[in-house]
Design goal:
Elements (H helix, E strand, L loop, with lengths): L2 E8 L5 H10 L6 E2 L1 H14 L11 H11 L6 E9 L5 H9 L10 E9 L2 E10 L2 E3 L6 E2 L4 E8 L4 E8 L6 E4 L6 E7 L5 E11 L2 E12 L20 H15 L6 E2 L1 H17 L12 H7 L6 E8 L3 H10 L1 H7 L6 E7 L2 E8 L3
Helix pairs in contact: 1-4, 2-3, 5-8, 8-9
Length: 361
């Protein structure tokens, strides 16, 4: 699943050397600098430039997503940190707090940096990417109907059993294994369901459960958006986040001709506890050392179910959480599983957990 973090703070200017040195000194390794990420950082810094203390313009997250897609960067784990400052000193003293939110299970492997001067202040953006699979060629932004694209690349250590999921504009999500004996990624995606927007996702297993490594939207026979698409208006109509997201999921299932899911209080307790654990750890993971997987957590409550699935997201509101799920073929498929009967949702800050089961006993 795609997770992008956008923060604006009043700090001093970052440098590639200071960021890389801090990460290396604290056991993260030193990310490789990327010209493509430099360009994304420069565009984002230009958009968010302004006086120190003034709030940034709306739509920064959507703008980041658009820039990444246009640059052919489809990695699912991206952190964008934008800083407004007046001088170049003192950044190193604040760097640990700025980067302390990074997930040790998915450390940054690539980095981009840019600074923009405007209105008597400097605005610097650092873009950090965890590249769990290095693709031989980027996933395309555009394609013609009835064509295919090869998805090949090298898996980073710690990932195994890769597969590719495709969500066509019509029909169910398709999944195919992409593992080779040499631990490479190899699959062929067919755009054979007519024109429209196809979701293409690379997923692999890890010690923390399944992890989305790449997530792309391919515009087949239709034009991609020329500008970022910014969602406006209230997402929850004043309802509590968990209740609001449950309503949005019910509407989504109704649009697919599926029955609504009943709320399960015990399942909601499980989801809330997992959301709190994720928020404390600052990570997205289906499996944690102390609590195990969703199956483990469900069984620990004395529940047994025929179907078990879990969706995770970091989002600003319930609408953004659902949008993140629907951009991911695997997460969208989970929401549309016909055998589901109950759900429970937990929210802790920006961490959303949706636990889904069928026929609990």
């Amino acid at each position: 699943m795609f997770v992008a973090l956008l923060t604006v703070l009043t700090l001093h200017a970052p440098t590639v050397d200071s960021v890389g040195a801090w990460l290396s000194a604290h056991g993260w390794g030193r990310p490789a600098r990327s010209a493509a990420l430099d360009a994304v950082a420069a565009d984002l810094a230009a958009r968010l430039a302004g006086p120190v203390g003034e709030p940034p313009p709306a739509g920064g997250r959507a703008h980041l997503d658009f820039l990444l897609a246009e640059a052919g960067i489809t990695d699912a784990r991206v952190e964008a940190l934008t800083v407004r400052h007046r001088d170049a000193g003192g950044f190193e003293a604040r760097l640990p707090g700025l980067l302390g939110r990074l997930d040790r299970r998915q450390p940054p492997t690539h980095l981009g940096l840019a600074t923009r001067a405007a209105d008597g202040a400097l605005t610097s953006t650092v873009v950090l990417v965890h590249r769990g699979a290095t693709l031989d060629a980027p996933l395309p932004r555009r394609a013609a109907p009835d064509t295919t694209v090869a998805v090949r690349g090298a898996l980073r250590r710690g990932y195994f059993a890769p597969r590719v999921l495709v969500a066509p504009p019509r029909g169910p999500v398709r999944e195919q294994p992409a593992r080779t004996p040499s631990r490479r990624l190899d699959a062929t995606v067919a755009f054979d369901a007519g024109p429209g927007v196809y979701g293409v996702e690379v997923v692999a297993d890890s010690a923390a459960g399944p992890v989305v490594l790449h997530n792309a939207r391919v515009y087949v026979g239709v034009a991609p958006p020329a500008l970022p698409v910014v969602r406006v208006g209230p997402a929850s109509d004043g309802a509590a986040p968990a209740e609001a997201l449950a309503t949005l999921i019910a509407r989504f299932r109704q649009s697919r001709g599926l029955r609504p899911l009943a709320w399960h209080p015990a399942l909601a307790d499980i989801a809330r506890a997992h959301a709190r654990d994720l928020a404390r750890a600052g990570t997205l993971a289906h499996t944690l050392p102390d609590t195990g997987s969703l199956v483990t957590r469900v069984r620990a409550r004395g529940l047994h179910a025929r179907w078990v699935a879990e969706n995770l997201a970091v989002a600003d509101d319930p609408g953004a959480a659902l949008a993140a799920f629907l951009r991911s073929p695997g997460h969208a498929r989970n929401l549309a599983l016909p055998g589901l009967s109950h759900l429970g949702i937990g929210v802790a800050g920006r961490y959303y957990v949706v636990a889904l089961v069928g026929a609990p006993q």
